[in-house]
Amino acid sequence: MLLGSKSLGIKLLKIDFADVRTKYCYERFLKFLGMSRFFVLIISAASICIASNALAQIKVGVTVSATGPAASLGIPEKNAFAVMPNEIAGQKVEYIILDDATDPVAAVKNTRKLVSEDKVDIVLGSTISPASLAMVDVVAEAQTPMIAMASSLKIVDPIDAKKFWVFKVPQNDAHMMTALSAHMSDAGVKTVGLIGFNDSYGEGVISEFSKLAPVRKLNIVSNERYARTDTSVTGQILKIVASNPDAVLIAASGTPAVLPLKTLKDRGYKGKIYFTDGVINEDFLRVGGKDLDGSFLPAGPFVVASQLPDTNPIKKVSLDFIKLYESKFPNQAPNSFTAHAWNTYLILKYAVPIALKTAKPGTKEFRAALRDAIEGTHDLVTTHGIMNMSKADHMGFDQRARVMVKIENGQWKLAQ
User: What burial class does residue 164 get, using C-beta atoms within 10 Å of its C-beta: 0-12 exposed, 13-18 middle, 19+ buried?
Assistant: First the structure.
């Protein structure tokens, strides 16, 4: 409908035209004016709708270690986002995924971009503990919630003004070391040699194990470190072998954890070998090969989901995710790290509907409400455990979130 001069609020002058041509041009001008105002109104309304829709979209920023030493962990995590639904509670979800190359500096750079340029509502990542720890200051400054996919307890503890904004999905080192140290004790182990990464991951694992060792009457007889990028640990292994421990704990993650194992085998070590849950991926099994047979490690229930009793609620959630994942990646089974990434979605699926009752996505109010909703997560069944977060616990798992696993013929087997 063409808008008339009256509806446009235009006061017309009464003019006596000297000729027909002048009158015709004047009437054409009025029609143009009405049509122009009409299109302005349409464009303005469309702009408002577009802006409203953009504002309603939930932006999820992700940084993972898809390259570098932790790529065997980061690639499976990245793949999980390919099967995540692009809608939660009726709101469109955009996943902005960046690679930090296993570099804490790059992880910080990615996080700054995500919160300042992309204006994300939440940050997920990173893959490794050093990178995740480095990201804390950035998300706290931006008052944007973050869910880490790395395991160090230091990422979320102690909960201060900065870590108020930070959560994580992997089990704490304390959970895993409780199961591992109990298994050692039950197996008759008395003396233990330690070798781990010389970063926050290795230190976190060894610190928790060292607290539990006296309780289990385990004597630590050697304690060594190495870098993720090292190509030799001969010196450290010679010291461990010389101490003649009943068992060796390798506090490392991904394929770099194979290096101490291979060196121990080359030096003729015959004792028990334990790893952490940080090694659970197919590349680790491939690189370690037969040398891994007989090794033990604590793991989330997802790793042996099909072997869990049907009464365990974690089994169904895990098997459902495996089916979904394999429909997208038919020649590739999801691993523990893929499941950690999927659990970030399960948390969002739980928390977003609650946050939407308070504010719209794209606002600081929504980010704050989302943080509060995540902290209130209650009885959420995930692929690794049943999550109950609180103001004092930003991870939320209990002892149901770990089992002991034995490596046999390149397979993860539930240890009996």
Answer: middle
